[in-house]
Model the fold of this input.
Amino acid sequence: MNAIVGLCHFCEAHGPRPLFCTFTTDSDKNTTESSRASVQCSGCTSLGPETVFVSREDDGTIYCSRESVPNADVTSFLRQAAIRSITCEVNWNKEGGVVYFNDAHGHVLSLTFQLKDTWARGLKRWFSIVVLMKDKMLLLNITPLLSEHMQKIAKELQELAEVVFDAEQKVCSQRALRLKTGRNDFVQSRSLMHLTGDDNVFKRLHSHFTWMLKAGAHTYSETLYTSQDLLKKLQPHAVKKSIFEPGTCSVSSDKSCIALRLLEKTVSKAVFRILMYCTLTGVYIVIKSSNVDAATIINGLARLLPINLPNNPRIRQYRVDEQLPPTVCLLEETENNNFSYKWSGALPAKCPTLMTRIENSMNNEKFNDDVLHQHLKSLQLEWLGIAKAVKAAIDSSGSKSDAVAKLKQVFGIGQHDESLVSYWMTVFCS
Amino acid sequence: MSYQDDPSCYVGSFPKDFSYGPFEQNGDGDNTSLQEDHKPRILLMGLRRSGKSSIQKVVFHKMSPNETLFLESTNKIVKDDINNSSFVQFQIWDFPGQIDFFDATFDSDTIFGGCGALVFVIDAQDDYQDALDKLQLTVTKAYRVNSNIKFEVFIHKVDGLNDDYKMESQRDIHHRATEDLAEAGLEHVHLSFHLTSIYDHSIFEAFSKVVQKLIPQLPTLENLLNILISNSGIEKAFLFDVVSKIYIATDSSPVDMQSYELCCDMIDVVIDISCIYGMVDETEVNTFNSQSSSLIKLNNGTVLYLREVNKFLALVCILREENFQKQGVIDYNFLCFRDAITQVFELRNKCQNAITSRGTSGTPEPIPNGAADSTESASDRSQTHLP
Done:
């Protein structure tokens, strides 16, 4: 588990300070480098700058315990955690655990507890165990596990300290002594080894903290899913014909695929708007051209649709001598490379939102063609998502239902978008 | 589904002004405003082990001074609400001496922004050079955040020192601290110095002076006390906050330590007696009530007279025995005084923020008005009140 487990205390002279920490690493450098001794104080030192406890796993993971962390950023994070866990965060009980989050530095789980100490002012000293982690969700998930173990560690230390405390009180009662002398002189904080009467207390802590790191790693292993992987796993049919299909987001850069702005220039703006409207709302288009290759126009118009249907029946080339119903939009090349159209329909007063946005982005001179096409792709995918959602809502609660109306309102689908959405629902969302 | 359409429906957020208003004043004059903004803050700062927590515990929590030897080191900012009476309302923040609160990770605006007074405690029994350095740092930085803070320096733990050394160290600390400030370009910042110890009454006296500076009504109260004593033949009168034994006002004659101690002891006696014998039933906690009064005659011809003003305030007077012949007049004058105090409370409740000494012009004057010889006029009046 990628975390740092630390032990902090409240020093009579220096305030809250970290004094011991365990972390995982995979480089031997951390195990040999000496810690920087921050202050000369018996309470604030644990192993000393030169001692490092190391446990090795077979897979190369190294659990390493030392007085301070080599990395300066982490050192300040650990110091902050010491200050915050002991002097700022408040648990419901006097002693107890707290989880707090800090997106800038990292997230911390802390447990504060007291150890009895005859020499301390209140006959007690404050300590805290902190777990520092960058991964918020992982920390939250293993908090129950870790805090249980942290409590056990605290209890173990408290029991050891209690024995020492009782023995020392028997020799000389601090209460009587202080009342008699009327003073309580300053003495340096004693080290944890003195407090617990156990020379191996830091070895114990090393094994406890290592266990915590290991248990954390065993309890939750993290697999990185992209949203696509996850969706495929959870609901394979939902991925079909959606942005999660491979290649959906790629824009064809074929030579045969005419750029939209060029197409607009070729056919003139007015004609292009008609073509665009017909393409987006599924009106049949037939192209009759002499000089320009009809296929390039067909491919160019196909850019406007989110999914490239092979041999889209609604946009096709003119076959010789065929009779077309007036509802079909016929694009015809006249002389001088001019184009005209024949269509019984007309553009509505208010075009579909998507069409307006496409026009806006085409007019945006800051977009070059590549950016424009990529941008259009994202707009199309957005509306494809909308169409899918509406379709799912209609399937589950009927097209007239209140829920569908509300959903449409939320998506901002107006009357002018209806034709587009219903076309997309039938063609792209099956 | 429907709540989204209903704009008047608050989910998870209350309207901004949704909070408790100040309580209505009850008969005892005990009103507690929950709006923290009105509560001035007193910060206790200083090096570790200088005695900050001990001061707070002894003055406001009745801890015996010996017990402070067993206080734990303060690891958090301890916030203590003092809500005893309408006048004495503040918060005490006791800081751990080990932590530098000017560090960028602490929000110094929040700490010093609403602060009324900063008490800096210096251990006089220790080498105080470090403390003076810290004092200069604290004052300059706190002043930068909030220039309205009153700075008070407690030269503390002077009980172990002889008088010469006490004076010498006060002079020395005063001299060096003001010099340090002048060096930092803050010669206009005023520091007040107090010699204090938790083993005698000096800490209560010093804290009284700190608190008095935070009471905007102080001139009014002083004025009322002046009128009272001049008309009743009283030598010295203190208006006490009973729970903490700090006096929130006294008349304008100088305070001598002995009479203050005498009055403190008297309050202790009254409280103890009423706690032991005044309990009506088990559930009643506060035995000090509107009926409480006490009279102690000393064998040097002095009389101590205590009357309660409201649940938390008591008036303690020192007067010559011969001036106490006409107790009725004094009692009557006291009632006028109490009425006046009540009016000050009411006015303060009406306009929490700005109240000046002029605000009480409507209060009734105690009876003899402008009489040259107060004792005489008091006895004149007594004819009408005493049978």
User: Anything to note?
Assistant: Residues 327-350 of chain B form the longest helix (24 residues).
